[in-house]
Amino acid sequence: MDRITLVGHLKIHPGKYEEFAQVAKRIMALVEDEPDVQVYEWYIDKDSGACEAFETYKDSKAVIGHMTGPVGAALPELFQFADIVSIDLYGELTPEARELTAAFPITHRGLPAFSASK
Q1: What is the pLDDT, as a whole number, of residue 1?
Q2: Contacts 24+ apart (CB under 8 A), 77-80
Q3: Mean pLDDT, the chain, integer
Q4: In whole angstroms, how large is the CA radius of gyration of the chain?
Q5: Residue 118 has pLDDT above 80, yes or no
Q6: Domain for residue 21, yes or no?
Q7: Cα angle: 98, vertex 101, 104; to 5 degrees
């Protein structure tokens, strides 16, 4: 199985929700042009500033395309308004994808032991 799923845990800076939301909406529009992104959903608790990003990619090549394309270019702006707390990654990245994501606080959770997804 080549699929990569991640759950990113972000913390929006106090008083910066509107700015964060503007950039996030722009990123969502960019993701629409990435055919190998299978799931890209962000859940936000405005009161606490917590953002949980659920993302699933067809494979490591899709992760690389995501990080080196327009979305990757937009991330520095997003990180002006939020910090990454942690990222849980499910699946096995290729060495190239691991190198590209090495700066992020990723915990690699491994391959699925059991799976019934379609």
Answers
A1: 62
A2: 77/23, 78/20, 78/23, 78/24, 78/27, 80/19
A3: 95
A4: 14
A5: no
A6: yes
A7: 130
Question: Does the pLDDT of residue 15 top 70, yes or no?
Answer: yes
Q: Kind of pairing, strands 4-12 and 50-57?
A: antiparallel
In CATH, what number is assigned to the domain containing residue 19?
3.30.70.100
Report the alpha-carbon distance of residue 83 to residue 92 in Å, rounded. Answer: 24
Residue 14 token pair? 């106090």
Phi, psi of 63 (to 5 degrees): -65, -45
What is the total count of domains within the chain?
Answer: 1
Burial of 104 (0-12, 13-18, 19+ CB in 10 A): middle
Structure letter (DSSP) for residue 104: S
Q: Dump pLDDT digits (tens) for 74-86.
A: 999 999 999 999 9
Residues 6+ apart with CB under 8 A from 88: 6, 7, 9, 106, 107, 109
Q: How far apart are CA 35 and CA 29, in angstroms?
A: 12
Segments forming the whole domain that contains residue 48: 4-108
